[in-house]
């Protein structure tokens, strides 16, 4: 029996099928809008023609340096033009981009470099001290390229560190070919980037993105953020965090302007918004607090309404009203590293504006509905893999399915299989499904604390505290914080006859953890346990909220 006519002589060929890739967004923007400003950094302005040429130079130079398909190129960079060029030049070379969190400690950076088998490491001199310590611990010996930011502020909180290698980034770039004929991925499933999670137990896991997902995120981010042609985007979100939620690639879809920002400071943000006509930015609750609580002399007036994308915990009503008064419209998003950043949006409906304040707040507290590029979003009972009733009450695990879900965890088949059990990505987050199809988180089963937009493993903090000789039992939970969203709060039970102060234990943690992971408050006393000896964290969460 012959096949359908729709399956006969209608094959894929180069004319009708090309692998999706986010690099194409930049290529088109440079072709259509070569003279439009692509990047602003201090007093430097770069048009799309130059942005595309410099990205091709980087790709050419990396290939000349030996980078082949699927080689890892690691970067320790701030929100600078070099970071934007890396997001395009590295995949143009066939390499996989590994952006390192600049706030990590040397041991974790060393682990990532070894686990990723990094071949090249581009280092901003602001972080050369940290990287030097990491390289002493690492086994790999990547080629080091030093990035010396020409717009490094004179009033910087820290001086530039020493150069670590013999290659300067700008000189390296100039060795490349601006007309380099880059090739897209052989398959849109090809690996594009590598992002490490904050590990809940042991070492962090390496999340691998593919070209298809990042390309689709470009279109979805434009829709979810309400971007028109030529938006102006301020970089307050670190580009090392889920590749900046894929916005380094997204802006090319609408030929937008990237406004770089090395440090998130109120005056610098207001100046950028007023001087450059910023229309969009993303950030954690801490960025909103910084803006609305800024001294009056740091604030600037601007005529446009600025769209502010935020994730993590929903902002309190007073923060939302403060942002509105300051000229910002807040868009609430939700996602994970494993979903390319935001994959869920609290898509606001016009008639909700007519609700009373309490009802509006209830609507805003929900995480929302799936992104356009996500095929399915559900709340599922993990024991039966059946969807829970959409009653706003029945608890289940939030699960994702679609093209903006990671390929898997690098070199970790067991973790990947567990994450994808039953044909869904298991988020580990517990929530409910409301009758109108909007989800709402109720708890995080992984006990992850989200502070300033960064994930902190409670177990990692507990392990550090357990190293102190006076500590007998400890549990770390999230404590609500107006500035950071959440901060780690440690409940500590001391050994009989031993003593320790809050300051002593926090200082002890600083010797083992990155500073942002250290507890901001410590409560001494007996840690509540079940009859089997399991610590009752739900009791401690209530106590932390009441502090």
From TrEMBL:
<dbReference type="GO" id="GO:0016874">
    <property type="term" value="F:ligase activity"/>
</dbReference>
<keyword id="KW-0443">Lipid metabolism</keyword>
<keyword id="KW-0276">Fatty acid metabolism</keyword>
<dbReference type="Pfam" id="PF13193">
    <property type="entry name" value="AMP-binding_C"/>
</dbReference>
<dbReference type="GO" id="GO:0006631">
    <property type="term" value="P:fatty acid metabolic process"/>
</dbReference>
<dbReference type="Pfam" id="PF00501">
    <property type="entry name" value="AMP-binding"/>
</dbReference>
<feature type="domain" description="AMP-binding enzyme C-terminal">
    <location>
        <begin position="460"/>
        <end position="534"/>
    </location>
</feature>
<comment type="similarity">
    <text>Belongs to the ATP-dependent AMP-binding enzyme family.</text>
</comment>
<dbReference type="GO" id="GO:0046872">
    <property type="term" value="F:metal ion binding"/>
</dbReference>
<dbReference type="InterPro" id="IPR025110">
    <property type="entry name" value="AMP-bd_C"/>
</dbReference>
<dbReference type="InterPro" id="IPR042099">
    <property type="entry name" value="ANL_N_sf"/>
</dbReference>
<dbReference type="InterPro" id="IPR045851">
    <property type="entry name" value="AMP-bd_C_sf"/>
</dbReference>
<dbReference type="InterPro" id="IPR000873">
    <property type="entry name" value="AMP-dep_synth/lig_dom"/>
</dbReference>
<dbReference type="InterPro" id="IPR020845">
    <property type="entry name" value="AMP-binding_CS"/>
</dbReference>
<protein>
    <recommendedName>
        <fullName>3-methylmercaptopropionyl-CoA ligase</fullName>
        <ecNumber>6.2.1.44</ecNumber>
    </recommendedName>
</protein>
<keyword id="KW-0436">Ligase</keyword>
<keyword id="KW-0479">Metal-binding</keyword>
<feature type="domain" description="AMP-dependent synthetase/ligase">
    <location>
        <begin position="27"/>
        <end position="410"/>
    </location>
</feature>
């Amino acid at each position: 029996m012959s096949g359908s006519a729709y399956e006969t002589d209608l094959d894929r060929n180069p004319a009708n099928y090309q692998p999706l890739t986010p690099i194409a967004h930049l290529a088109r923007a440079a072709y259509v809008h070569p003279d439009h400003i692509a990047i602003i950094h201090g007093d430097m302005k770069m048009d799309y023609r130059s942005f595309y040429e410099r990205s091709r130079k980087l790709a050419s130079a990396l290939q000349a340096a030996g980078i082949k398909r699927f080689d890892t190129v690691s970067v320790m960079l701030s929100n600078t033009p070099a970071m934007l060029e890396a997001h395009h030049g590295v995949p143009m070379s066939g390499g996989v981009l590994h952006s390192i969190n600049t706030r990590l400690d040397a041991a974790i950076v060393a682990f990532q470099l070894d686990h990723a088998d990094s071949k090249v490491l581009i280092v901003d001199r602001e972080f050369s001290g940290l990287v030097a310590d990491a390289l002493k611990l690492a086994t790999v010996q990547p080629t080091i390229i030093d990035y010396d930011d020409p717009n490094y502020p004179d009033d910087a909180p820290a001086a530039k560190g020493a150069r670590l290698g013999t290659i300067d980034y700008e000189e390296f770039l100039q060795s490349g070919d601006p007309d380099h004929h880059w090739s897209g991925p052989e398959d849109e499933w090809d690996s594009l980037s590598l992002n490490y999670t904050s590990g809940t137990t042991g070492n962090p896991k390496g999340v691998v993105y593919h070209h298809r997902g990042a390309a689709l995120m470009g279109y979805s981010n434009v829709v979810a953020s309400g971007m028109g042609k030529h938006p102006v985007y301020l970089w307050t979100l670190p580009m090392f965090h889920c590749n900046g939620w894929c916005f380094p690639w997204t802006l090319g879809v609408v030929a937008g302007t990237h406004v770089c920002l090395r440090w998130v400071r109120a005056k610098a943000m207001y100046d950028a918004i007023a001087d450059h006509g910023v229309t969009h930015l993303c950030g954690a609750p801490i960025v909103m607090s910084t803006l609305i609580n800024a001294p009056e002399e740091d604030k600037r007036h601007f005529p446009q309404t600025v769209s502010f994308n935020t994730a993590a915990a929903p902002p309190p009503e007073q923060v939302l009203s403060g942002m509105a008064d300051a000229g910002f419209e807040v868009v609430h998003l939700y996602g994970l590293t494993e979903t390319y950043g935001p994959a869920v949006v609290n898509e606001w409906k016009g008639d909700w504006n007519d609700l009373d304040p309490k009802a509006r707040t209830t609507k805003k507290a929900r995480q929302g509905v799936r992104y356009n590029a996500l095929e399915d979003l559900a709340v599922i009972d993990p024991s039966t893999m059946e969807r829970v009733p959409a009653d706003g009450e029945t608890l289940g695990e939030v699960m994702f399915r679609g093209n903006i879900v990671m390929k898997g965890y690098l070199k970790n088949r067991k973790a990947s299989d567990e994450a994808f059990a039953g044909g869904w990505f298991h988020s580990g987050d517990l929530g409910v499904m409301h009758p109108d199809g909007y989800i709402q988180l109720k708890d995080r089963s992984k006990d992850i604390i989200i502070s300033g937009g960064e994930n902190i493993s409670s177990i990692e903090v507990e392990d550090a505290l357990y190293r102190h000789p006076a500590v007998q039992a400890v549990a770390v939970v999230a404590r609500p914080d107006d500035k950071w969203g959440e901060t780690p709060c440690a409940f500590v039970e001391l050994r009989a006859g031993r003593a320790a102060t809050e300051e002593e234990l926090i200082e002890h943690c600083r010797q083992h953890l990155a500073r942002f992971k250290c507890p901001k408050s410590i409560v001494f006393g007996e840690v509540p346990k079940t009859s089997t000896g399991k610590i009752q964290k739900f009791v401690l969460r209530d106590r932390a909220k009441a502090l």
